[in-house]
Amino acid sequence: AGQSRFFSFEGIIGAGKSTLLRKLQENGVVVIPEPLQAWQDNGIFEAFYKDMSRWSFTFQIAAFTTRVKSVEEAISSTSSSSSPWMVGERSWFADSYVFEPLLHRDGHLNNMEHDSYKLWWQWAEQRAPRTSGIIYLRASPRTCLKRIQKRSRAEEADIPLGYLEGLFEKHEDWLMHRKTPYGRHDIPVLVLNADVEFESN
Fold it and tell me: Which parts pass through the membrane (predicted)?
């Protein structure tokens, strides 16, 4: 009782998560960004993109752990009186329902690693903070590719449409069709049409 409630924003790259979270933060909502800095500081982010088959398993463990740690730290440092709820840019569910299955499908995680991750994730998820709800920013891969090209981030320069389509398919399976390979999914989901531009609305 009295603890801030955590909600996650989910969606493929270019769906508008950062834009919408920035607007919420400007209005006093506690926002928890993806722990990109932690991934960059210990070198795992760069290593993962240089050699996915070598570092995918390590990166997935690091991603889960740092996401959970970010939320735990935000909860412990925020009183419910100052903010009754907080929002995060993706959750650990995105790792297990979207990114890890894609890495396995594409051969960057072998079956032994995939099975080990699944076993570990099911144990660790029970110990993570509860996610009260998910906001799914549902945008088409083509719309997102146009946004990615427009914002011109160096690390996103070579993202192909096919990769975005794979991410979209996994998000749809998880959040629209409720296909969850790791068991239950009883978290409420709000779907927003993210093909519209949040920046101008």
Answer: none
Q: Mean per-residue pLDDT for 39-58?
A: 91
146 assigned to a ligand binding site: no
Domains identified in the chain, total number: 1
* Burial (CB count within 10 angstroms: exposed 0-12, middle 13-18, buried 19+), residue 94: buried
pLDDT at position 201 over 60: no
Report d(CA 180, CA 32) in Å as an integer: 24
Q: Is 86 helix (H, G, I), strand (E, B) or coil?
A: strand
The pLDDT of residue 173 is above 80: yes
Indicate whether 38 pLDDT > 70.
yes
CA-based nearest residue to 45, from 31, 61, 59, 57: 59
Mind listing the pLDDT tens digit for each residue in 57-108?
999 999 999 999 999 998 888 765 566 789 999 999 999 999 999 999 999 9
* Positions marked active-site: 89
Handedness of CA 60, 119, 96, 165 (dihedral sign): positive
Query: Would residue 12 be called left, alpha or beta, if left means φ above 0 and alpha means ψ between -120 and 50 degrees?
Result: beta
Residue 151 assigned to a binding site: yes
Cα 199 to Cα 201: distance, rounded to the nearest angstrom: 6
Tell me the residue type at 184: R
Q: Report the relative pairing of strands 189-193 and 131-138 from DSSP bridges.
A: parallel
Residue 49 annotated as binding site: yes
Instruction: Give the CATH number of the domain where residue 38 resides.
Output: 3.40.50.300
Contact 31, 107 (CB under 8 A): no
